[in-house]
Predict the 3D structure of the following.
Amino acid sequence: MKNLIVIRHAKSSWDTPSLADIDCPLNNRGKRDAPFMGSLLKFRNLEPDLIVTSPAGRALETAKLIAKAVGYESEAITMRDSIYLQEAPALIELIRSIEDTHNRVYLIGHNPHLTELVNRLTGESIGNIPTCGTASIEFQVDSWAYIMEGSGRLAFFDYPKRHL
């Protein structure tokens, strides 16, 4: 079985309008929510074999905070340019290229494409993944190469505001 945990980056800061979109960091809420959601993943015993993230500052910062919370080495985080601003079909191709030695993978990126990805992979309609939202998808396959639209089962969908 393969398990993909799709994570939207935490809340970003727009305090410096001159920064390029890709360089925007997290705001204080984002810096609080990412470790919290990581601790929930740890509590559920859902530590990753691999974390793949967009190179955007807010996504990478989210990845590092979640990695710390789940006990994953931040140096082992993989950045993929192909996650930033890519639509669901390109993200599915990225997922299909993951090495089969990894059974649980965190994919950290951006909306609206992550919501579309979850909807396509599960055949569900989750509405919208809010900032730092997580969606766990289980696939009854031995290889990531077999991942296709509708082949996954939504195991859970969670986000920080559910816990306030």
Remarks:
- Residues 2-11+23-150 form a domain with the Rossmann fold fold (CATH 3.40.50.1240).
